Structure prediction request, 160 residues.
Amino acid sequence: MGVGKSTVGALVAERLGCAYRDTDDDIVTAEGRTIADIFVDEGEPVFRAIEKRAVRTALAEHDGVLALGGGAILDADTRALLAGHRVVYLSMEVDEAVKRTGLNAARPLLAVNPRRQWRELMEARRHLYTEVARAVVATDGRGPEEVAQAVLDALELKEA
Prediction:
């Protein structure tokens, strides 16, 4: 979260001349409420079920660049669906996360002691990200344009 997936994803799609889609946006549109509201009103398990459906649908319908929410890889079925795709893990350290997001309370999984919770989330998820990723691109200290180019380079893709 806060790594710049939406900004970088849109830039990569533009450079490749293809469409961009974000499953978080799909969820907000379909549900008519924010992800934070879904977490508060329904809880994380309900949100994760909604997210799983959104990812499955997007992978079936979309041929361009697709950004997933940070927790989408928690589901084994989702990880299996990603196996045949060019997945990039945009990595970031906690100090960079603080700079970019302030680790604010609008992020439901970081509501209490955000710095510690961010570290715990990353410790729990990092191995899953690297399991599905074809490439890992560090974003620390880099702007979106530089990260987008690093993604293209890592995947050995040429701009349109």
